Structure formats: structure tokens, C-alpha cells
């Protein structure tokens, strides 16, 4: 007997409001995706260590951020994620934190957000002490080992290597929902 093609499960209808809300708050686009389509990889953390001048300077970055293995274990606790696409980086962290809070207050107690790039809350991070703004700071997707390119492409969002300052940039945030 032939196997039927497996279908991607549809997200619960009540999660659709978060796509609408993300766009209301300034996202270029947003989608609810299966959590197992948020990809992690060990090489991503190495790109932070050997490609970013901020390695070790922020508590939201490696070596202080979750490892790809820890992140994969966390993602396995969820069924769905809200992936947001933005054209502007400067407001993404606040956007993710504020939307995560709304999702949480709506009864989604496991809501957990990831931003992009290094944290800019403090002029000087309290490394290696505790974060002074743990309520607002979030690790970037890449700092936690999330392969943003694979995740965004699987969701049908645009993302390309930025070759110079004239290239269009795409920024992504993620909120694990449940």
C-alpha cells in the first residue's frame, strides 16, 4: 500500500492573531511555523566566535548564550514558533520582547523570544556578572545556535548573504510559543 505524503500540521487558529499583531507592531511579515522547522547547528556558534568582533562582550552572546545543543533541547519543548521578518534591526529586540510579553500574558506561559545581533541596552555589559536588564535582554537567534538562513528559507522568507552596505538586509526574530 503506498504511503500518503505527510502534511505539515496546521497551526491552531488562535495563533494566527500573533501574525497579525506582529505586522501591526512593525514586522514586514510573520508566520507561525512548526517548532521543528527552527534549525540549530554547531557551526553557527563558531561564526560568532570567529566572525564577530563582539564575541564574549555581551551576556546575550557566546560564550554566555545557550549552546546550539541547549537551544535544540529547548525548541523540542515547543510545537510552534512565530518567525518575524523585519527590514530594520535597531528596533527588533524591543519588538521581540514586547510581543513575547503579549503572547505570554495571553496564557502562553512558555513564550520565549530570540532577537538578532548583539544586545545594545547597556553601553557596557556587566560581563561576567548577572545581566542588569534580564527582563529586556534576549539572545540573538544566531548566538543561540539557530541557523537563521535555513529557518527563514524553510519558512519562505527572503535571506541572502549581505555583500556590502548597499545590499538589502533582512532581520529575523523568533518567539517560541507552545
Give a written overview of the molecule.
There is one protein chain. With 178 residues, the protein is of the alpha+beta class. The protein has one domain. The protein has helices at residues 16-24, 42-49, 68-75, 92-105, 148-154; strands at 29-34, 80-86, 112-114, 171-176. The chain has a four-stranded antiparallel beta sheet with strand order 1-2-4-3, covered by helices on one side. The longest helix has 14 residues, at 92-105. The chain is globular and about 40 Å long. The N and C termini lie far apart (35 Å).
What descriptive keywords fit this protein?
alpha+beta; 4 strands; globular
Going across the major beta sheet, what is the strand order? 1-2-4-3
Biggest β-sheet strands, sense, barrel: 4 strands, antiparallel
Terminal Cα span: 35 Å
Large-scale geometry = globular
Percent helix = 25-40%
Binned strand content: 5-15%
Count of DSSP strands: 4
Rg computed from alpha carbons, rounded to a whole number of angstroms: 16 Å
Q: N-to-C SSE series?
A: HEHHEHEHE
Describe the SSE topology:
Blueprint: H1 16-24, E1 29-34, H2 42-49, H3 68-75, E2 80-86, H4 92-105, E3 112-114, H5 148-154, E4 171-176
Antiparallel strand pairs: 1-2, 2-4, 3-4
Give a brief outline of the structure.
The chain is of the alpha+beta class. It contains five helices and four strands.
Amino acid at each position: 500500500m503506498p504511503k500518503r505524503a505527510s502534511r505539515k500540521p496546521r497551526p491552531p487558529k488562535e495563533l494566527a492573531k500573533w501574525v497579525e499583531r506582529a505586522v501591526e507592531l512593525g514586522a514586514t511579515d510573520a508566520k507561525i511555523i512548526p517548532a521543528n522547522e527552527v534549525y540549530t547547528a554547531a557551526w553557527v556558534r563558531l561564526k560568532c566566535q570567529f566572525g564577530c568582533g563582539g564575541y564574549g562582550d555581551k551576556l546575550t552572546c557566546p560564550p554566555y548564550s545557550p549552546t546550539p545543543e541547549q537551544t535544540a533541547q529547548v525548541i523540542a519543548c515547543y510545537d510552534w514558533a512565530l518567525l518575524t521578518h523585519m527590514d530594520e534591526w535597531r528596533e527588533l529586540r524591543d519588538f521581540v520582547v514586547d510581543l513575547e510579553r503579549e503572547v505570554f500574558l495571553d496564557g502562553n506561559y512558555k513564550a520565549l523570544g530570540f532577537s538578532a545581533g548583539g544586545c545594545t541596552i547597556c553601553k557596557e555589559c556587566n560581563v561576567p556578572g548577572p545581566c542588569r536588564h534580564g527582563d529586556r535582554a534576549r539572545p540573538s537567534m544566531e548566538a543561540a545556535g539557530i541557523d537563521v538562513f535555513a529557518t527563514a528559507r524553510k519558512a519562505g522568507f527572503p535571506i541572502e548573504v549581505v555583500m556590502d552596505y548597499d545590499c538589502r538586509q533582512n532581520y529575523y526574530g523568533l518567539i517560541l510559543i507552545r
